Amino acid sequence: IGLQILGDAYDEETILRVAYAYEQATDWHLRRPQL
Fold first, then answer.
1. Is residue 12 helix, strand or coil?
2. Between the CA atoms of 16, 19, 21 and 25, what dihedral angle is there, to the nearest 10 degrees?
3. Is the separation of the CB atoms in 14 and 8 below 8 Å?
4. Which of 7, 11, 31, 33 has its CB 3.0 to 4.6 Å from that of 15, i.e. a possible disulfide?
5. Does residue 34 lie in a domain region?
């Protein structure tokens, strides 16, 4: 499972804002697989 965020050329600011908003709205970045 993955997520790809695309944007216009040279518009990294928007892409990073979207990624940050997603990270704040979910807990996916905190999940770790059980070993």
1. helix
2. -160
3. yes
4. 7
5. no
For the residues 3-30, what does the mean pLDDT come to? 94
5, 19 contact by CB (below 8 A): yes
Task: Compute the Cα dihedral for 18, 24, 25, 26 and give only its sign.
Answer: positive
Q: Whole-model pTM?
A: 0.71
Give the number of domains in the chain.
1
Q: What's at 10, amino acid-wise? A: Y
Pinpoint the alpha helices (H) of the chain: 12-25
Structural domain for 4, as ranges: 1-29
HSE, CB side, 13 Å, CA atoms: give it for residue 5.
Answer: 13
Assigned domain for 15 exists: yes
What DSSP character marks residue 9? Answer: T
